[in-house]
Amino acid sequence: MLAKLTAFNNRLMPGRSLDEQMDNTFILAQQLGFDALVYDYTPVPIDQDGSLITPSVLELRNTPPDWHALWCSEGFYQIDPVQHLALSTVSPFVWSYEAKADTALQKIIDPCHAPVSSYLHERQLTCGVSVPIHLPRGGFASLTGLRTGKANTVVQDAQQTLADFSLITHALQEAAYPLFSKELRTYPHIHLTKRERECLKWAADGLTAAQIATQLSRSLAVVTLHLASAMHKLGAKNRVQAVVRATHYRLLED
Questions:
Q1: Which of 175, 144, 157 has the alpha carbon at shortest distance from 36?
Q2: What InterPro entries would the database entry show (predicted)?
Q3: Pairwise pLDDT comparison (165 vs 12), residue with the higher score
Q4: What SS3 state is found at 213?
Q5: Positive or negative, the Cα torsion across 129, 34, 83, 150?
Q6: Less crowded by CB within 10 Å, the N or C end of the chain?
Q7: Which stretches of 162-250 are DSSP H helices?
Q8: Maximum CA pair distance of the chain?
Q9: What is the pLDDT of residues 136-184, one digit of tens each?
Q10: 185: how many CB neighbours lie within 10 A of its CB?
Q11: Where are the domains of the chain?
């Protein structure tokens, strides 16, 4: 096992970009019998309402040409049961959309997943392996390999590759994560100014607006304005909720 991991790392580490890392990963995945590859990363996987957040990084290899648009712009990512399953577990798993297949997916499939299920059935990509990676501070990534072919045979073959595919996934994540910019590691849909973040950080420490004004050598009116602006951007009803939401979205990290 250690020898395999070393071989995977040696294959992936020389890549100079995420594209090169993905190309090398796809070569390894093809050797295991996979026909397509999907890698996603998000610094915050769910919003305050519990809905999946569209990933900051979505890298695809040999998927249908409309995949990226559907998953990132048309809401398929939010109703993809494989993504929901990946987020709820720490273990690699084999999945299949075939009704007779005995995989974890059959336990959670319901009508709301029909657009994704129909899409994959039409393209004969109904089976795969997914490896979730829960990162420090709440980040999340996963790698999914997809297969074509007859359901029973494909599921059995996929089961045989679970360990090796998991090793490839972790090798890819180790090689790819250092390439991500600070912006990619931060929730991209809410942008707080430097002053707004400073004020919220002090508020998180329990300081009042007047005390924050003293700390920052600013007027009470200016600090109140920064806090109100941050609350508005976060959709918060008060400062406590603003701090909770900013923390959830990792907006107060240096």
A1: 144
A2: Sig_transdc_resp-reg_C-effctor, TF_LuxR_autoind-bd_dom, TF_LuxR_autoind-bd_dom_sf, Tscrpt_reg_LuxR_C, WH-like_DNA-bd_sf
A3: 165
A4: helix
A5: negative
A6: C
A7: 162-176, 194-204, 209-216, 220-234, 239-248
A8: 70
A9: 888 999 999 999 876 667 888 888 999 999 999 998 998 899 888 888 8
A10: 19
A11: 1-185, 194-249
Separation of alpha carbons 202 and 3, rounded Å: 49
Per-residue model confidence as pLDDT tens digits over 196-239 = 999 999 999 999 999 999 999 999 999 999 999 999 999 999 99
pLDDT at residue 13, rounded to an integer: 65
Of 40-44, 152-156, 209-213, 240-244, which range is least confident? Answer: 152-156
pLDDT at 5 over 60: no
List the CATH code of the domain at 1-185: 3.30.450.80
For domain 194-249, the CATH architecture is: Orthogonal Bundle (1.10)
How far apart, in whole angstroms, are the C-alpha atoms of residue 71 and residue 2? 35
Q: Return all residues near 140 (Cβ < 8 A) that are at least 6 apart.
A: 41, 42, 45, 87, 132, 133, 134
Q: Hey, CA dihedral for 168, 95, 50, 66, is it positive or negative? A: positive
- Side by side, which strands form the sheet with 57-61? 57-61, 36-42, 140-147, 127-134, 93-96
